[in-house]
# Entry
Amino acid sequence: MIRFFDEVDSTQRLAREAARAGAPHGSAFVARAQSSGRGRLGRVWESEPGENLLMSVVLRPDVPVAEAALLSLGAAAGLALTFGLRVKWPNDLVSRGGLKVGGLLAELDADGPHVGFVILGLGLNVNQRSFGDFRATSLRNLVEGNEIEGVELDVPAVAERARSAILGWCTHPARLEEWRRVSHTLGRVVRVDGREGLATELRADGALIVGGEAVLTGDVELVGRGG
# Structure
């Protein structure tokens, strides 16, 4: 089920309150505009009203808390597969050239050692054409530039496809294999958390291996290609 709203403060808040009231797995909330949209690490997520997909989905997987981070990795991989994109660790969606198209924000509610529910927020640039100084683009720009094809640009239709991708891949047994296949990070020299080195692998727990060491959180800056 997807519920559509004209404007809200945050789809994350709506989904979280619904989850606490018992909303089932897969319940989704979409808004044309948000007054207090958030990205990862407390950043503001800005979007032209009605142009892009602003959605939060309630997930109730039967998995331990230790596996919670894998849910968003799987969802990112499924979304990349669905829309012809790539993934930048940990869960940004980018074009082949590395321009940001979307991102995921996961908020966990634990029930002891198990996941109670996760609110997975998705911001996906669909029809917005201009992004100022940001290194970003949209599905429309990529379709018109012949970088991707077969992608409908009607926001409600994109919401349905995105929700299906998230639900189909967040716990899929091949999610990490798919993430590696569509990665825009592996095999590149990156800088993250003050460490610079070649990103060689995605570990089974979702950590990125950079210069032989595991990185669990942080923003990746691409420095160059591996030799």
